[in-house]
Amino acid sequence: MGWVESLQRAIDYMEEHLLEPLSIEGIAKQANVSVFHFQRTFSILTDITVGDYIRRRRLTLAAQELSNTSSKIIDIALKYGYDTPEAFSKAFRRQHGITPSQARSYHGTLKSYNRLMIQVSLKGADPMNYKIIERESFQVVGVKREFSCVNGENLVAIPKMWDDVHADGTNDILMKLNKGEIKGVVGVCVDKSSNQSEPLIDYWIAAEYNGETPDGFMQLEIPASKWVVFEVHGPMPDSIQEVWKQIYSEWFPSNHYKPAGTPELEVYFDGDPWSPDYYSEIWIPLKRD
Description:
Blueprint: H1 3-16, H2 24-31, H3 35-46, H4 50-68, H5 73-79, H6 85-96, H7 100-104, E1 130-135, E2 138-148, H8 153-167, H9 170-177, E3 185-191, E4 200-208, E5 218-222, E6 225-233, H10 238-251, E7 257-259, E8 265-268, E9 279-288
Antiparallel strand pairs: 1-6, 2-4, 2-5, 3-4, 3-8, 6-9, 7-9, 8-9
């Protein structure tokens, strides 16, 4: 089964079980990938978290029932996972801008978030510059923090970590420490989902380095891999986010590779990251589909 079909299978599973308790572990299992990699791919392609998708779909269906049936509001609230009418009303108003009672009496407009169908683009309107390389294992040194993947917490916390390492000078130190082939500072996600009851990752900000680990830093070994390395041109963070989306919506569907599931790298080189001429890279380890 290809990765697109696997992702669609997980989405179909969510839809079929919207009225039941859903766990991210159970959803990711349908796609045969880890929690972290499923959440990451889903967010890249849809710009929302898995939890947001489930919540939006439930409230969309709840609005349809309010408009088209005579079921009690409390019964609809319970059906879609809300323990109290107050909690349901708060969530409903946040999405639709009106209360359940107003929706029942046809006052105001409703927002409909429709069922997702994964569609990929193979036209390649915008060219992607990349190369395939093979490397033996190598070491990076840097700092790490552990983040939860629940409700997309890692998506908020990782940018804050980058702000911190720029503010305290760690980023500059790592840039000077670099003694490897990768001449920049790297962001590395290490999936720990298989070892924990809660989906967790270690996120590293590091530099390739051979030798004794400098004081104040830790060492991580990146396994030997075949890598696809994509060029990114333009200011952060929009440019790198756009290339990630191209990778999963265009490049992987048109190639005989799939992500290996081992750590992926974002490489940030020296320069002004907000410049339209800024250059960075995305490194993804590969395996055959």
